[in-house]
Amino acid sequence: MAKDGSAAQDQALAELVADAPCGIVLTDPEGRLLYANETLHRWTGMSPVADDSLQRLPDLMTLPGRLFYETHIAPMMQLQGFAREISCALRVQGGAPLPVLLSGVARHDASGNPTRYDYTIFDMRERRVYEDELRTAQKHADELAAIVRSSPNAILRVDDAGLIRSWNRSAERLFGHTGKDVMGRAVLDIVHFADHPDWFTHAVAICRTEPEAVLEPSGAHGHDFEITVVPIESDDLADPSRSYSVILRDISQRRKVERRLQVAMGEMKHRVKNTLAVVSGIARQSLPSELRDEFIGRLHALSRAHDVLTDEGVKGADLRDLLALTAEEAGGPTRFRVSGPSVPLSAAQASSLSMALHELTTNALKYGALSERGGYVQVDFDHGVVSPGRVRLVWQERDGPSVTPPQHHGFGSKMINRVLAVDIDAQVEFDYRPNGIVCAISFDA
After folding, report:
1. CATH for 12-128, among 3.30.450.20, 3.40.50.2000, 3.65.10.10, 3.40.50.1820?
2. Which fold, 255-444?
3. Over 90: is that where the pLDDT of 270 sits?
4. Can you tell me the mean pLDDT for 307-320?
5. What are phi and psi of 186, to 5 degrees?
6. How far apart are CA 371 and CA 157, in angstroms?
7. How many CB atoms lie within 10 A of CB 64?
8. Which CATH class name applies to 151-250?
9. Considering all CA atoms of the chain, what is the largest pairwise distance in Å, rounded to the nearest integer?
10. Where's the PAS domain (predicted)?
11. What are the residue ranges spanned by the domains of the chain?
12. What is the percent of the chain where pLDDT is above 70?
């Protein structure tokens, strides 16, 4: 029974070595092959024991591996008796080289002379893929770190408790503190603004419902800043706490330009007002009474459009603002009812539409719905409903005197068609319905 058990054990060990998850190679001290297991045969597609051309271990390797064996592996095995995790590649019959890790240990006789070298060879393909991915990730991390270091903006990472966890060079330059000095300190103690002392707390509250928070406090260290705060989600399931990326851009120069622009806009507004006043004075003295009031009314419409444009600054005007001014001229919201979204207008569009709305309002006050106590004007407009970017405005007079189509078109309707068509490439349609005039204006916003 003992002999049978020993035989079974020897058989199990032989099978374990032959089918091991790694390659196993035995050589003599000269590197000549004594044994290679079946795993190695499957990997390489070779049979080194039966092939007379494969006499030594380096014959299994690619050229770089053979050179390294002769210059490093063989001397290490001879001098120190082992070699650990040597990266090399094996030749594969009809395929690409197989990256492996080779480790070896020397066996000695009683006199201490080496008698055999035992090598284990591990398939390194999955590890190579992992290492390539790791190197790529490290490269990306290094590139990102370089961007953060060299950015002209102050870039911070702040944890959920408001403590600073990273601080780049621009932050050191702008705020006069090194990263070592501020690490772990409250960001509100280091970056503070007199007009917004709780800016970080406010930004975190915004980030609970929005993807980012953008603030523009001023006065810190003589600079004006735009601050962007964005949450950084943690991938660590054991620590799900949030931290925040905080970017501070110095916008002091931009603020100076904006202040100069505001001064210039105010000066321009004043000069245009003076010019229109001069033209109005000349009209009062030069035009006959039947033309004077209409001409001066048109000047006032231009002046109101100019006010809207200069009040909005470089952003331009909004159609709703022009209609609000028209409502005042028409007698208030009960006489002039408006429905429609915000539509930004260029300077040319605002001026031309202001003139057209003034003519329509004047006509309604004299002859149309606004000439009677219960009459009113309904203005409905939309943006992008008919076609992308197209605005359609419909003016409809209601509960006024009965309307009949005119025998000829007066100066006002001709001016509306000409000004809107030439200045803003608009399409204008008049419909003289018995219950009130309808004017439809379409143009590209």
Report:
1. 3.30.450.20
2. Heat Shock Protein 90 (3.30.565)
3. no
4. 62
5. -70, 130
6. 66
7. 12
8. alpha beta
9. 137
10. 9-48, 140-192
11. 12-128, 151-250, 255-444
12. 81
Q: At what angle do helices 289-312 and 252-286 cross, to 10 degrees?
A: 180
- Return the pLDDT at 398: 92
Answer whether 12-128 and 151-250 agree in fold: yes
Amino acid identity, residue 107? Answer: R
Instruction: Please state, rounded to an integer, the average pLDDT across all residues of the chain.
Output: 83
pLDDT in tens, 181-208: 999 999 999 888 888 889 999 999 999 8
List beta partners, residue 225. 250
Find out whether 315 and 344 touch, Cβ atoms under 8 Å: yes
The dihedral sign for the CA sequence 201, 202, 203, 205: positive
Which value, in Å, is the radius of gyration of the alpha carbons in the chain? 43
Give me the pLDDT at residue 246, please: 93
The answer, yes or no, to whether residue 313 has pLDDT greater than 80, is no
Provide the residue count of the chain: 445
Strand extents, DSSP E, 243-351:
243-250, 317-318, 336-339, 344-345
* Residue reference for tokens 């707390």: 201
Which of 422, 423, 440 shows the shortest CA–CA distance to 431? 440
Measured between alpha carbons, how far is 97 from 133 in angstroms, rounded to an integer? Answer: 20
Which stretch of DSSP H or E encloses residue 141?
helix 125-150
Distance from first CA to last CA of the chain, Å, rounded? 99
